[in-house]
Every structure is written in structure tokens, then in C-alpha cells.
Amino acid sequence: MTENTTPSVPFEPAAIRQIILGVMLAMLLGAMDQTIVAPALPTIGREFGDLERLPWVVTAYLLSATAVTPLYGKLSDIHGRRAMLLVSVAVFLIGSVLCALATSLPTLIFARFVQGLGGGGLIALPQTIVGDLVSPRDRPRYQSYLAAVFMTSSIVGPVVGGLFAEHLQWSLIFWINLPLGALALAMMWNQLRRLPQNHRPHSLDVIGAVLMITATTALLLALSWGGQAYAWGSFEVLGLLAGSAIAFIFFVMRLMTAKEPFVPLTVLLNPVVAAGVTASFFAVGAMVGLSIYVPIYFEAVRGLSASNSGLFLMALMTGTVVGAVISGRVMGYTPHYKRTPMVGVAVAVLATAAMALWGNSLSLFWFEVLLAFVGIGLGTQFPVMTVGVQNAVLTHELGTATANLNFFRSLGSAVLVAAYGAIFLGALGASGTEIGDLDVLAAEAARNGRDLGAVFEIVFAAASVSLAIAYVGLIFMKELPLRGRT
Fold it and tell me: Residues 45-104: pLDDT tens digits?
């Protein structure tokens, strides 16, 4: 590796803290808007008199945010992080205003799509900016803070969304983004001008970008509709899957022939990046899957209320934050930084296996202990994956590599949540049932002579297998020495 990744202009500690706080706030905006809307959906549906299309309020944001994440990474390598972060925040805030002013559900869905076009950059660019700001050796603790922000949004988002919808007005969910976004920009506006510029000739492979976005969008639509709006074997779902596969094939062909492909082959074929992406795909997918199915398990099997089930889920989310912070701290002080996630993910595999084998027979206290161990174990891999991937690529590839890591994290979430849903409904013998409808689940279990608790244990087993695959990816991820300041 011939390039120096340390900043060309030294930053004072106060300036670093100011930028870090700014990018953490920006990341919080993008991450929280993936979760804050869900509790307000019933209120929004009643106001607009349209309940059938409500899921699209969430799906539209996730579709656009996931699809454009790699595009922001590539464009930030071409035009700079500051320029693309400003574009990302501006588009996100415009989308927020459109959401708050929406007068019908279709206009709200369109506005959420626009908002996601900005939100995709708010997830990936902060991690890239930290990569520009500090050396790999100093980076882990800052990346652990960003991971903590992402996990915190999973807890805070639903609580804030519910409070606004129930006690105030649902449009405040979107209006609140304006002062927060302005504050984030104010904190970073001048300091980001000092970020190093990589003066290399770059061009955007428009054809490759269109093919990747098309393939991703078709796949996510198929996963969103499959088993819910349409049967998995329906023409609509199979057509989308076929279209996605064809677009991905053409995308791979484009990567092999383009002068400067959308995702450089040096990044795609880098063994550290490939292993890190694989581990992240399955680890984050398992975490998101558990965050969806565990609250339903608490309500349907343990008899907890909706509010208490969310409260008890905090063991998983809080554990993830703790694991990320511990791993980030340890990574900065030892050359063998993989040891922490190797232990952590192994513990998460065993804990989910225990949930699958004995979950229903355990007291709620011990089930919570297992959830906490799962969270801590999952958290340990976040800073190691991000910093390890960034440390393995050249400076001018940093944005592309970081964005693609986040892209596959999001894609893993969509794929594994859909897979767990298919496994759950298949074990229940109730294809096409709405998983969130507890009365229907109980009725289907009784009609088919199934133990609902045992069906959830199968999902926990699937999560354990996913984490085991993530562990294999972690094993194959080469432990390169972290570059320090020069």
C-alpha cells in the first residue's frame, strides 16, 4: 500500500470532538428515521383513511436509503466528503419537510422516498469522515461511538415516535429533523473544509451505478412483498427476483469491462473487504432479525404488553452498545484486535443456540441474560469490521469501501429478516399470515397444532446459524496492522 491515509492538515483535539459530535448527530438523523415512524403508522393511517399501503411509509425510506448508499461512497471519493454530506443533509431535510406537509398517504410515501435518498448518505458518510479524520490506529473508539449512535436510535426512535404520535402530532417526527440537521451542519461546516483531498482523476460509472441500484431495488421489493403482499411463488415476486438477478449479472460484467468500475475490483476482491462484508452481512442481519422477532415473542409467548416487550428488548440493544465500546477501546491498544470479536461473536452464537434449545423453559430473567450476551457479542464486531475494512484499502477508495460495507449490512438485514419470516411462517404452517398480528398467530398455531414458542425457537436457531456464518467470515478476515500517524 503506497498511500498515506493520515490527514494532511492536523486537527486539534477540540476540532476533532466538534466534527465527531456533528457526524454523530447526522448519523442519528439517518438511523432514527428508520425506526421513529413505525409507532406512528396507525395514527397516520387513521388520519389519511388508508391502512392498506401503510407499510410503504417504512419500505420507501429503506429502499431508497439502501440503494443509494454505495453511490454516496463513490461520489464522496470523487467530489469530497464535505460536499456529499451537505447534499445528503439537504436532501434529507427537504424530504423531511415534504413528509411533514404531506396531505395524503401517496404523497407521504413519495416524500419518504426522497428523504431516504438523503438518509443513505447520513449512514455511510460519517464513518468515512472519521476515516479521513484520524488514523486507523486511533479510529476504533470513534467508530464504536458511531455504532453506539446507530444502536441507540433503535431504542430512542420508537419511543420518540410513539410519544409524538400519541400526545402531540405525528408531523413533529419530521419537523424535529430541521433544527437537528441545522445544528449538525453548523458544527461541521467550517471544520470539514480542512479534510484532506485526494487529488486523483475519478469518473462515475453511471451505467454501473444504474445497474446496481436497479438490482438492489428489485431485490428489496421482492423481499418486502414476498409472503406478505404476494406469495413467494407469485409472478410478481419471481419476476422481481429474476430481474434483480439479471441486473446483478450485467453489473458484474460491467465491473469486469469498465475503465473505472462503480466498485473498483481492488476493493471488491480485497480479501479483508470480502471477509468483512460477509461477516457484517450475517451479523447485522441476525441482529435486526432478532430485534423484530424477540418483541413479538415476548408478547405472543411470554404475555408481555407491547410497551414492556420493547423495554425488555433493551437488553439486546444496550448490550450491543456496550460490546461496541469495549471492542473499540481494546482495538486501539492491541495488535491482535480480532480476538475481542472472535470471543464476542462465539458467545453470541452459543447464546442464540441456548435460546433455541431452552428459551421457553427459561425464566424471563435468564432469557434477558442470554439476550444481553447476544448483544454484547454482536457489538464487538462493529468497530472491528469498519476499521479493518478501511485499513485494508487505499485512501482514494475509502468512501467506496465504507459505503459498500454499510450497503451489505442493510442488504443483510433485508435478506435475513425475509428469510426468518419465511422460516417462521413455514414452521407455523401459515403462509401469508401477517407476523405482527398476534391474534392471528395464536389462531394459526392452534389450528395447525403447533407450539408457538417452539416456532420462535426455530427462528432463534436460524439466528444462531447466521451468526456462525458471520464467525467464519471473521476467521478469514486477515488481521492487518493498523496504520498509525506518520
Answer: 778 876 667 777 777 888 888 888 888 888 887 777 888 888 898 999 999 999 989 888
* Beta-ladder partners of 230: 226
Q: E-strand spans in 23-118?
A: none
Please give the model's pTM, rounded to 2 decimal places.
0.82
* Those residues with Cβ within 8 angstroms of residue 131's Cβ, 6 or more apart along the chain or in another chain: 5, 139, 390, 398, 402
CA 50 to chain CA centroid, nearest Å: 28
Which residue spans within 362-441 are E strands per DSSP? Answer: none
Written as nine digits, the cell of 9 is 492538515
What is the C-alpha separation between 10 and 314, in angstroms, rounded? 39
Provide CB contacts within 8 A for 66, sequence distance 6+: 120, 216, 220, 407, 410, 411, 414
Q: What is the DSSP letter of 22?
A: H
**What single DSSP character describes residue 335?**
S
CB proximity list for 290: less than 8 A, separation 6 or greater: 316, 352, 374, 460, 463
How far is C-alpha 170 from the geometric centre of its chain's CA atoms? 24
> Residues for the chain: how many in total?
486
Determine contact, residues 19/131, Cβ cutoff 8 Å. Answer: no
* Distance separating alpha carbons of residues 25 and 76, to the nearest angstrom: 19
3-state secondary structure of 51: coil
**Measured CA distances, 469 to 166, 219, 392, 421, 465 (Å):** 41, 22, 22, 19, 6
Cell of 225: 412483498
CA-closest candidate to residue 197, choices 110, 282, 84: 84
Distance CA(178)–CA(146), nearest Å, equals 21
Rounded Cα–Cα distance for residues 26 and 31 (Å): 9
- CA gap 70, 82 in Å, rounded: 16
Residue corresponding to grid cell 442519528: 28
How many Cα atoms occupy the beta-carbon half-sphere of 388 within 13 Å? 34
In the numeric block, the cell 446483478 is attached to 248
Measured CA angle at 273 (ends 268, 279), to 5 deg: 120
**What are the phi and psi torsion angles at 226 (to 5°)?**
-60, 130
Quickly list H helices, 332-363. 339-358
The answer to whether the beta carbons of residues 48 and 169 sit under 8 Å apart is: no
Give the model confidence (pLDDT) of 276-292 as tens digits: 999 999 999 898 888 87
